[in-house]
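Annual report, structural modelling task.

Input specification for the F0G complex:
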Amino acid sequence: MSLDPRAFQRCLSPDCAATYDAGEVLTSCTRCGSLLDVDYEWERVEVPGKLSEFETAWRSRHQPVDFSGVWRFRKLLPFVTDESVVTIGEGQTLFQQADQVARFVGVNAGRFYLQYEGMNPSGSFKDNGMTAAISHARATGATQAACASTGNTSASLALYTGMTPGMKSIIFVGSGKIAYGKLSQALDYGALTLQIAGDFDDAMKRVQEVCQSMRIYLVNSVNPFRLEGQKTIMLRVLEALRWEVPDWIVVPGGNLGNSSAFGKAFIELHRLGLIDRLPRLAIINASGARTLSELVGRRGLSWNGGRYDRRTIDDYYAELDRDHAKASTIASAIEINRPVNLAKCLRALDACDGVVREVSDQLILDAKAQVGAGGYGCEPASAASVAGAKLLVEEGVIGPSDRVVCILTGHLLKDPNVTVAYHSDDQKVFNETLGVRGVRGASFANHAVSVGNDLDQITRAIQLYGH
Ligand code: F0G
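The model returned the following structure:
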């Protein structure tokens, strides 16, 4: 197992810019505490002359590294040697033009696309990053890996450690804060699952302490190698658009790993001369977990060349503590108040002329039902992207003829309770699952029709409702 000598780690702060060997297991700069990036001696990397050269990798897709939707782009994330890669063919995801959903959003037919990352082996985009993190972990000799999670990171970690001999996983989840589909995966894949009495932000703090004191490999997105894998989601979007850059990428914002990785991908592609412009980035918070929206939208926080105002962040977190404010949204995957990748996300917003918005749980669920009725389906957090796109069209920020790509981050089956409650005509079921979060109605409910075990009744129901 070995690392590529052309890769190294670099501190995000321009005033520090310390560098570290790629083999060091770090989640922040030991000098100044900032996040770390993975960087490369690009002049020593054989970068393709144009992006379409990646298509030739498919010729040898009997090779696991060329079959993977992450590693077939490995020339743009060259930090491990091929024999260190842990892959199960992640990234075979779908990119679809979605005209029905476009109508709901308010974008012209033929201009709206969904990038469906729920098609990954563990059912979410996390596998793009996990294959990268676990490959790095293995190359550094780690035998235990851990994460805090709202469910998908843990499902993905448990899957990848399950298939890696000699590697075990420990996952930290907030008690009662994880959708059943995701919890069932962690248990079945054999992870040690610790349900902490607290929420994701509490679990995140604890897992960082434990990983440091017990020298366990941490795979949350403070791990810079994980984000390298997530860059490839954007490469697959570009590939599906025949290497043309869309006008907008719209993504849900939770711990802000995806948005950070997308920004880094576009910055690098532009610097390498592989794209001629960057798309605009829209990051969508749930209104019950709106740290980014508050800090960027209302308090004016910005990247500022890497010298962003830490006081603004600290003051806001102190207010949250003072008010005992906890994140609360039906989109449990993004129920996060202290996003660990905030700084890198500011860089992405700056580079991609980005915007941040927040959307209500009601709009998230209605958007989710529209994504489902459009033939795709996703979990609640994923639908925040579609809800956010609709809001931005209403505001006139996204134009109806703009080319818009929404990222669907997780599979419909991750959170069946929410879906069934939305479509239920039983007020008790609806209220117990959704009403507690302030959701009042289901504009696109598709109630199940109860019929007797009787041919006439069944025939009548089909005649009445089957069109
Ligand atoms: N969508 C889904 C389905 C997620 O699971 C997450 C994050 C996000 C969006 C937000 O992405 O953190 O990159 O901004 N889930 C993490 C987890 C926190 O633990 O599974 P982000």
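The chain is about 40% helix and 15% strand.
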